[in-house]
# Entry
Amino acid sequence: MTQGDIDALRAHGLDDTEILDIALAAAARLFWSRANDAIGYEPSQRLLERAHSLFGERAFRALMVGRRFGQPDAASDA
# Structure
């Protein structure tokens, strides 16, 4: 995080505690992703389909950053 990031968050009305929450959540997400990459974790097709149905297309795509996994409708594309 840069000072510019912090300034932008403050411009949106967030206070220091909320900015810290964002920084810690981002760090935890990065840790979890790196740990899963290190052990070669691959989510099941069922989990991908469930996440897609719970979050919807837009949020699902936003959450699927980094290493790509099978798509929830991959079986129908084959």
Summary: The longest helix spans residues 16-39. The chain is about 70% helix and 0% strand.
